[in-house]
Amino acid sequence: MATRADSLEPICDLRFGQVGIANLRLLQNDPTGVEAELAHKVESAPALFARTALVLDLSHLDTLPDDTQARALLDAVLSAGMLPVGLAYGTSATGELASRLGLPVIAKFRAAYEHDTRPAPRAPAPAAAAPTVPTTTTSLHHAQPVRSGQQVYAQGRGLVVAAAVAAGAEVIADGSIHVYGRLSGRALAGALGNEQARIYCTDFRAQLVSIAGHYRVFEEVPADLDGHAVQCWLDGDKLMLARL
Fold first, then answer.
1. 103-108 own/partner pairs: CB under 8 Å, 24+ apart
2. Which residue, 175, 172, 181, 176, is CA-closest to 143?
3. Do residues 220 and 199 make contact, with C-beta atoms less than 8 angstroms apart?
4. How far is CA 233 from CA 180, 188, 241, in A?
5. If you write DSSP's letter for every residue of the chain in order, what string do you get?
6. What is the rounded distance in angstroms from the CA atom of residue 188 to the CA atom of residue 177?
7. Which of 127, 120, 136, 121 has its CA nearest to residue 176?
8. What is the pLDDT of residues 32-87, one digit of tens each?
9. Which residues lie below 8 Å from residue 219, measured CB to CB, with a gap of 6+?
């Protein structure tokens, strides 16, 4: 007897790809505090944060929340205006908690979790006037414009974009990012925690820049940076920006 699969065209096409998911690293088991902090971020930049898909990283808490506490944290994220979609990779207990909550464990953040178990080197601040240009032979080279709604991810390496990055577009790299054109969207370097990563662009008009999870949102780009060649780097926990 013929089955439906034998006689009809498929009605869906399941694929895996890179998607923009925020990673919320919880440092305290405090639902009220989490809701307040996230609500402030959503209010300050709703175009970037409202209804953002978000993964909860519980690996930095002293103890793993129980089911009731975890549900309270999920409710806090929802109340703030973001959408929790899973738990970040952690221990087997994290996987069991995710199963009881009916959520997936997102493997995308596995490498970031394992990286954080080792001390990260502090990145020295580069000279503001003439930074050293790093070797890009192993970088991903992207020659086409990155249009609004598109994402380019350089996994395990740097990214060189020889075109513009539009508002609403996103470029991500585990290493450094070079944009030889207008950067109007989001740029996230050091995506797996590399604090030595840098961001360089020749025309800075970004909505957001991030290095190793330290980010800055721009409702309006400061006049001294707007339209200029700019570099971004980390000085300790502070995200620095300067004209080239």
1. 106/21, 106/55, 108/21, 108/55
2. 181
3. no
4. 17, 11, 7
5. ---HHHHS--S----------EEEE-SS--HHHHHHHHHHHHHH-HHHHTT-EEEEE-TTSSS---HHHHHHHHHHHHHHT-EEEEEES--HHHHHHHHHHT--EEGGGHHHHHHTTSPPPPPPPPPSSSPPPPP-TTSEEE-S-B-TT-EEEETTS-EEESS-B-TT-EEEESS-EEEEEEE-SEEEESTTS-TT--EEEEEE--SEEEETTEEEE-SS--TTTTTS-EEEEEETTEEEEEE-
6. 8
7. 136
8. 999 999 998 888 777 678 888 888 999 889 999 999 999 999 999 999 999 999 99
9. 44, 45
pLDDT digits (tens, 9 = 90+) for 98-143: 999 999 887 654 434 444 443 444 444 444 443 443 444 489 999 9
Asked if residues 170 and 191 have their Cβ atoms less than 8 Å apart, the reply is no
For residues 50 and 32, give the distance between their C-alpha atoms in angstroms, rounded to a whole number: 18
Would you say 198 and 217 are in contact if contact means Cβ atoms under 8 Å apart? no
Q: Supply 118's token pair.
A: 């080792």
Q: For the sheet containing 170-173, what is the strand order? A: 151-154, 170-173, 186-189, 208-211, 214-217
Structure tokens at 1: 């007897």
Q: Which token pair is 6?
A: 């034998």
Q: Which two tokens stand for residue 60?
A: 């930095």
Strand partners, 209: 187, 216
